[in-house]
Amino acid sequence: MYGADISNTHPDSRWQNEPGSAKANRFRVGAVADVVGRTALVTGGTRGIGAAIAKALRDADYAVAATYHGNDEAAEGFEAATGIPVFKWDVADDEACAAGVAQIAATLGPVEILVNNAGITRDAMLHKLSSEQWRDVIETDLTACFNMCRAVIPGMRKVGYGRIVNVSSINGQKGQLGQTNYAAAKAGLLGFTKALALESAAKGITVNAIAPGYIATDMVAAVSRKILDGIVAQIPVDRLGRPDEVARAVLFLASDEAGFITGSTLTVNGGQYMT
Length: 275
Prior knowledge:
Helix 6 links the parallel strand 4 (111-116) and strand 5. Helix 3 packs across helix 11, helix 5 (94-107) packs parallel to helix 6 (131-159) and helix 6 (131-159) packs parallel to helix 8. The chain has a seven-stranded parallel sheet with strand order 3-2-1-4-5-6-7, sandwiched between helices. It has one domain: NAD(P)-binding Rossmann-like Domain (Rossmann fold), CATH 3.40.50.720. The protein is 45% helix and 13% strand. The radius of gyration is 19 Å and the shape is globular. The chain has helices at 11-14, 22-25, 48-59, 72-82, 94-107, 131-159, 170-174, 180-200, 218-221, 225-233, 243-253, and strands at residues 39-42, 63-68, 86-88, 111-116, 162-167, 205-212, 265-268.
């Protein structure tokens, strides 16, 4: 099914089958949607939360592609271990995003599910933060979301279906010392999500955000034990989150069952910050 025309596999067209037919019954209220052959793209999808999301989508029978930018060895290992094809480009480069999305469409099929997960940190107090550190984070954590959405949204609008999930952060909701750049970018994602949701709802496209708290990834593992203990002490469930817990939230928002949810932010933070 890779590379096939997806216009006839949109849920709206499936409802046009004769009532009582096997195909129509699969898409009655409460039925499990047929996702086989739908293409999902996860940026920053070879490590940490992104890898967990990519694997969860694969296990749900999506045709998954994962992007990365820096670590060739980790990406090759991920592809070998999971069977998920990886594609290398800088999501802060709009032309690279357009070319990459076209390549994935030619390889797996048009992108119907986009998960904007790629992100970086360049932490420093504002009075020590360089313009380069500011730009790097804004471009990778916020502008990249525009680049990727701009590349996939025309196709989604054409077929009348799409799922976009933007991975924000608890620190985009509450702020964080030494992260004015990161907090600004992640907060920007929330506004972007709401605006694009309004633009896209009538076209059968949902746009939502996930705001993870502190999750047990390599990035968090690099934090000193003392600081980590202090972080966990602020989390009511008294532990770090797991990447698979974030992935399950994304999987739900990517599903047909979440079709009446758009413009929302789902927090996955163990109760550390409640909105």
